[in-house]
Design a protein that fits this description.
8 strands; Rossmann fold; four-stranded antiparallel sheet; single chain
Amino acid sequence: QRVGIARALANNPEVLLCDEATSALDPETTDAILDLLVDINERLGLTIVLITHEMHVIRKICHRVAVMEAGEIVERGEVLQVFQAPQAAITKKFVSQITDTKETQDTVAQIKTNYPTGQLVKLIFVGEKTEQPVISHLVKQFDVEVSIVHGNISQTKNGAYGTLIVQIDGTQTNVTEALRYLNTVEVQTEVIANAN
């Protein structure tokens, strides 16, 4: 891969096209190639068009993404925006490779059994929202108990993207108000299970 990249750069191109540059590579070599591409982009100011099916590659180094299906672009935008709110079915499937891993699905199934009261809620944080003390505000303002049961934060070139699964327990009114508050601070919510 390094030799292929060097050969392409020898022609002093305006755009570097990388078709599946990390396929069939072990994780360590994949990271090395991605770091090399980021370095080329930043030092040479060279636009890189990267074709891949691996969403973790897009998350790690890309600024913008276009999703293609049957030869047509079905969705495009900044990586963080597309990861936050995928629109096309194929994009949702690709993004779920990272956000809804087998481990996460198994954890959610187990959580539903272990937390029979309150509401299990998946929170999605994007960009600066990942650094805000949202959970402590819920507890202080709405007289609810919040248990963090699963979480994950990933970095993209445009900022952080995180998911957190919490159990919110309290009166129905307080839980409803807490969920309403989350929407006002632009944290996406999805109720996974409702025991109340």
